[in-house]
Write a structure and sequence with these properties.
Layout lengths: L12 H13 L19 E6 L5 H14 L7 E5 L15 H9 L9 E5 L7 H11 L4 E7 L5 H8 L3 E5 L5 H7 L9 H17 L3 H5 L2 H24 L4 H12 L4 E3 L1 H10 L6 H13 L3 E4 L6 H6 L2 E5 L16 H14 L6 E3 L5 E4 L7 E8 L3 H12 L5 E8 L10 E5 H10 L9
Parallel strand pairs: 1-4, 1-5, 2-3, 3-4, 11-12, 12-13
Antiparallel strand pairs: 6-8, 7-8, 9-10, 10-11
C-alpha cells in the first residue's frame, strides 16, 4: 500500500489520527523528477492547476521529498489524496477535522511549521472555508492543493480563497524533461549528442508530453489516450458542465484535437456542423470553446493588436495542451509534424508568458511575445530545405521593421545566405537550450 493509498473512512477524529499515523510510516512512491518547482509563498495557498495526468500529484511528492531532504520531520507533513475511492465519502465538516487531529496527534510540533499537501481537493466538501480559516489562524503552516482544471478553474480558486491563493499552471513534459524521462544523456560540444537530440525531438513530437504516455510501452499508448479522451469528454466536460448538447461537444473536441496550431473559425465550424445535421447555435459553439479553454485543453491565441475590437473579430490561433491527445481522431499520427512542432514551441513559450499572440499583418508570424507591443517574433517550419519555403519564411520576418526575429526549423537550409537580423535555430536546440537556460519557467496566474 503506497503513500497515497491509505484507507480513509472519515467518521471521527480518531480514525483521522489513525490515517495520519499510518501515513508517517509509508515510503514515498517512485517518481521521475520534473524541472518545474513548487514555490512556497508567505501567506499564500499554492494551487496547482492543470489537466488530468499532467503530473500534479508527482510534483507534490517531489516537493515533499525536497522537504524531507532538507531535514523537515515526516510528522510535519500531511498528505491526502481525495480522489482515491477508499477515501470516499468525505462528508461536509469532516475535512475540518484533519488539522485538529494532526495537532492533537503531534502536540510537540505546535511551535513548528506544518506542511499540508491536499491532492484533488475539490472532492472534499467545504475545503475552501477550512483552508481559508486554517491559513488565517496558523501563520506557520504551508499548504499546497491540486485539482483537475475542469473542476478547479484558476478564477474559481481565486474567488473561493479570496486573495489567499497563488495558482501555478502545470504543463506536460517539456522537451528537456522528455529526455530525462527517457534517460537520454546530453553532452555539450558533441556532434553525436546533437544528432541524438535531432532524433529525440521527432520522438517527442510523435509521443507527446503526457508523463504516463511517455513512460508506457508503445503498444499501449493509444489505449491510454483513448481512455483519457473518454474520461475528459464525459466526466470533465459533459457531466461537470451539465452540457445540453453532448454530441456537439464531442464533435467540437474532435475538431480541435485534430487541428493543432491552426486558426479556428466559429462560422466555418457552424456551417460544417449544420451541413452534417448537427443542431447548434454559434453562441453555443463559443461557449463550448470557452469551456475547452478554461479546462486547459486548448489555448486560443488572439491576434497581436492593441485594438480589443480587432482582437475579438479576428480568428484565434488554437494550440493544444498536448498534441498526442488528438491521436485517437487522426488516422496518420505522423502527419503534420510542422503543426506539432509549432505547438511545442508555443508551449515552451507559454510556460512563462501567458500574453502571447500571433500576427497576420504586415506578415504572417506564428508567435509574438506580446499582444500589445510585440518585440520578439517567431516563425516555425518543419523543413527549410525547399527554396521557396525558405524564402517565404524569411520574407515574413524581414518585412518587420524591428524586434528579435527567430526562425525555428527541424531541417535547415544548406548554403543559404541568412539575412541580417534573423536567427535561424534548429528546433531541437531552440527547445532544449531555451528550457536549459530557464527562460521557460513556471507561469503564475
Amino acid at each position: 500500500m503506497g503513500f497515497n493509498y491509505a484507507i480513509l473512512i472519515l467518521m471521527n477524529k480518531d480514525q483521522i489520527k489513525y490515517l495520519l499515523r499510518s501515513q508517517q510510516s509509508e515510503p514515498l512512491p517512485q517518481f521521475s523528477p520534473r524541472e518545474q518547482p513548487i514555490p512556497f509563498a508567505a501567506g499564500k495557498i499554492i494551487s496547482l492547476i492543470g489537466v488530468r495526468r499532467v503530473g500534479k500529484t508527482f510534483l507534490l511528492f517531489q516537493r515533499i521529498k525536497k522537504l524531507l531532504d532538507s531535514g523537515v520531520s515526516r510528522q510535519q507533513i500531511v498528505y491526502l489524496n481525495f480522489e482515491d475511492d477508499r477515501i470516499w465519502p468525505i462528508r461536509e465538516g469532516e475535512f475540518a477535522l484533519i488539522p485538529q487531529a494532526h495537532a492533537e496527534l503531534f502536540p510537540d510540533l505546535q511551535e513548528k511549521p506544518v506542511y499540508y499537501f491536499f491532492d484533488e481537493i475539490q472532492n472534499a466538501p467545504g475545503w475552501e472555508r477550512v483552508c481559508r480559516r486554517l491559513y488565517d489562524t496558523d501563520k506557520k503552516c504551508t499548504m499546497v492543493v491540486t485539482g483537475s482544471s475542469s473542476h478547479f478553474l484558476a478564477r474559481e480558486v481565486a474567488s473561493e480563497l479570496r486573495g489567499r491563493s497563488l495558482p501555478i499552471e502545470v504543463f506536460p513534459l517539456s522537451f528537456r524533461e522528455f529526455l530525462q524521462f527517457r534517460n537520454v544523456s546530453v553532452e555539450t560540444f558533441s556532434t553525436r549528442s546533437e544528432q541524438k537530440l535531432y532524433s529525440e525531438l521527432e520522438n517527442y513530437l510523435k509521443i507527446g508530453g503526457l508523463p504516463e504516455v511517455v513512460l508506457a510501452e508503445e503498444a499501449v499508448r493509444t489505449l491510454i489516450l483513448r481512455e483519457y479522451n473518454d474520461l475528459v469528454l464525459y466526466k470533465d466536460l459533459i457531466d461537470r458542465h451539465h452540457l445540453s448538447n453532448p454530441l456537439v461537444m464531442k464533435e467540437l473536441l474532435r475538431h480541435c484535437l485534430s487541428n493543432p496550431a491552426s486558426l479556428i473559425n466559429v462560422a466555418k465550424i457552424y456551417n460544417d456542423f449544420k451541413s452534417r445535421g448537427l443542431k447548434v447555435g454559434k453562441d453555443t459553439l463559443h461557449k463550448y470553446l470557452d469551456i475547452l479553454q478554461d479546462s486547459y485543453l486548448i489555448f486560443l491565441l488572439p491576434l497581436a493588436e492593441r485594438s480589443l475590437r480587432k482582437r475579438a473579430i479576428n480568428p484565434k490561433k488554437m494550440h493544444l495542451i498536448d498534441w498526442s491527445i488528438g491521436y485517437t481522431f487522426i488516422a496518420d499520427q505522423q502527419a503534420d509534424m510542422g503543426h506539432k512542432l509549432e505547438n511545442a514551441v508555443f508551449l515552451s513559450e507559454r510556460r512563462a508568458n501567458p500574453e502571447l499572440g500571433y500576427l497576420s499583418s504586415p506578415a504572417e508570424i506564428d508567435l509574438v511575445d506580446s499582444r500589445d507591443r510585440p518585440r520578439r517574433f517567431i516563425n516555425v517550419c518543419w523543413s527549410l530545405a525547399n527554396q521557396s519555403t525558405y524564402e517565404r519564411e524569411v520574407q515574413a520576418l524581414t518585412s518587420l521593421k524591428s524586434g528579435e526575429k527567430i526562425l525555428v526549423a527541424q531541417d535547415l537550409p544548406t548554403g543559404a545566405t541568412v539575412p541580417h537580423g534573423i536567427k535561424i535555430i534548429p528546433a531541437w536546440r531552440y527547445l532544449y537550450e531555451a528550457e536549459t537556460a530557464g527562460t521557460n519557467g513556471i507561469s503564475v496566474r
